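Weekly sync, protein design subgroup
Attendees: M.S., D.O., the rotation student, P.L. (late)

Item 1: inverse folding check
M.S. brought a backbone from last month's batch and wanted to see whether the design step gives back something sensible before we order anything. D.O. pointed out we never logged the input encoding, so this time it goes straight into the notes. Structure tokens as presented (172 positions):
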């Protein structure tokens, strides 16, 4: 579970940070405020850009913490700029760096993961596999991709390779 979650979420968050850097360069080259992206949405009924980045970060750290049986740090939702969002990514990455494969040794596919008690699911739990594969991984990538899509729709010259990041190819 460690490799499937922590290492991959970290990779995507690092790529997301690099994409935000490209957005800053794009805005500077086209002489507009990069923070215009902060309120952008794919559709009026979807959350804005700023929330997409926050949720991706929160999902990554909560997933790691919950599967490792730890408590995730709380990061207040105070970001108002792209620079702030890059800082939030940095804080999420710093927390994820503290987790190791050893932290996941006692987690089995049937370990019960308690969900936050809000809305229609107070006191609900999921088995670790359902939590990870059915909820957290899709949720994380949904928000990461939506962030990417907002920037791409805004004219930032990014492509699939920016989202995937550097791959460690080997000659066969």
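Designed sequence read out in the meeting:
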């Amino acid at each position: 579970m460690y490799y499937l979650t922590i290492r991959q979420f970290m990779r995507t968050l690092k790529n997301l940070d690099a994409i935000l850097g490209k957005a800053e360069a794009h805005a500077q080259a086209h002489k507009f405020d990069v923070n215009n992206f902060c309120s952008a949405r794919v559709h009026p009924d979807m959350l804005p850009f700023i929330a997409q980045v926050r949720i991706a970060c929160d999902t990554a750290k909560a997933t790691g913490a919950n599967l490792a049986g730890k408590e995730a740090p709380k990061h207040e939702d105070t970001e108002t700029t792209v620079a702030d969002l890059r800082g939030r990514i940095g804080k999420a990455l710093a927390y994820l760096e503290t987790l190791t494969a050893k932290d996941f040794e006692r987690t089995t596919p049937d370990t019960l993961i308690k969900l936050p008690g809000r809305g229609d699911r107070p006191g609900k739990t999921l088995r670790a596999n359902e939590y990870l594969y059915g909820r957290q991984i899709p949720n994380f990538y949904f928000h990461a991709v939506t962030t990417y899509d907002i920037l791409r729709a805004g004219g930032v010259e990014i492509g699939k390779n920016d989202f995937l990041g550097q791959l460690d190819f080997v000659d066969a």
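Discussion: The CA atoms of residues 36 and 81 lie 9 Å apart. The beta strands are 112-114, 125-127.
Action: P.L. to compare against the previous round before Friday.
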